[in-house]
C-alpha cells in the first residue's frame, strides 16, 4: 500500500491501516522533509513563538512503515499499480491510496508566497515567531479563517494590522453571515483595519524585503510583513492524465474511492466527495477533525473494498479561537436559513450559533 502525503491524513491513515490488521508493506511518501505535523498552530501560537516546533509533531508512531521524506509523487500508473516518485524510481505496489494535501494558492503579480518577507502560513519551514518582533505593519491578504487567526494574533501582539479581502464580509462563506459579521465587529474593536471588497494587486519589494502592497484601487499600504492567507488549491497536478477525475481536487465517491479506480481512496484536504446534507453535491472539507475521520474511513474502505464500503456521512467539524472567542462549527454554517449570536450571561464570551436548513439543499454558488 502506498500513501501519498505524509502529514495528518497520511499518518492517520497509516495508523488506522495497521490498527485494522493490515500487515502488508506500507510506504508513506511525503514531499516535505518533516515528520507529520499539525498545521493549526501555524496561524496562531507558532507565529509568536509561544508554540515551539516540537509541539507541532503529530503524536504516535506507526509500526513497520517505510516513511520516505522528501519524496514527491510525480505520476501514477493505474494499470501497472505503481506510483512514480521524483527521483525516477518507481514504487510498485499491489494496492495504494492517494492522500495528499493542498498547496497555498498564488495570485499576485509579485513573487510567490514564502519569499521576500511574505509568510505562507502553510509551511513549518517558516521561521518560528515572526510576530514576536517589535511592533510592525502587518498586511494579511485574505480574511478567511486563517487570515482572521493571523490578524487577531498580530494585533494582540501590538502590530498595526490590516486585512484585505475581496468579499463583503470575510469568513461569511465558512461561518455564515451572522457569525461572520460578528467576527468583523470583533476585528474592528481589536483595532484591525479591515478592507472588505478590496484586492491586493501587487507586492512592492526591495531586494529580499517586502515594502508594501498595492490595492486594486491604487492605494499603497506600507508593510513590514505580508501574510498570504488566500486559501489553498489541491495539489493534484501530478495526477493529470492518470485516468482519475480531477475537479477541485481528487474527485471521489461517497465511499472515498476515487472516481475512476477502486484502488485509490482520498482523505484530507485534497479530495472532494458527495455529502448527503448537500443533496449529494461534492464538497471539499479542510478541517483537522474531519481529516482524521476521513483517513479512518478511507483505510477501512480500502481494506474492505467498494462492495462493503461505508459512505462518508459525518458532518464537517472545526474549531478555533479568535480574539479570545471560541468558535465551534458542525455542518455547513454557510447554508443556514437563519443565524444569530447567542451571548453567554456574562457577555464576555458569545456563544455563536447558526440555525441549519431542515432538509438537504444545494449550496449557494460562490
Ligand atoms: C495555517 C493553518 C491553520 C489551520 N487551522 C485549523 C484549525 O484551527 N482547525 C481546523 O479544524 N483545521 C485547521 N486547519 C486545517 C487542517 O490543518 C487541515 O485540514 C489538515 O492539515 C489536512 O491534512 P492533510 O494531511 O489532508 O493535508 P496537509 O496537512 O496539508 O498534508 C499533506 C501533505 O502531503 C504532501 N504532498 C502533497 N503533494 C504531494 C506529492 N505529490 N507527493 C508527496 N507528498 C505530497 C504535502 O507536502 C503535505 O506534507 C489549518 C490549516 C492551516 C494550513
TrEMBL record:
The keyword Flavoprotein applies. Keywords: FAD, Flavoprotein, Oxidoreductase. Residues 87-134 are annotated as: Disordered. Residues 89-100 have a biased composition (Polar residues). Residues 2-294 form the FAD/NAD(P)-binding domain. GO terms for cellular component: cytoplasm. SUPFAM superfamilies: FAD/NAD(P)-binding domain (SSF51905). One of its GO terms (molecular function) is oxidoreductase activity, acting on NAD(P)H. Its cofactor is FAD. This is FAD-dependent oxidoreductase. It comes from Nocardioides gansuensis.
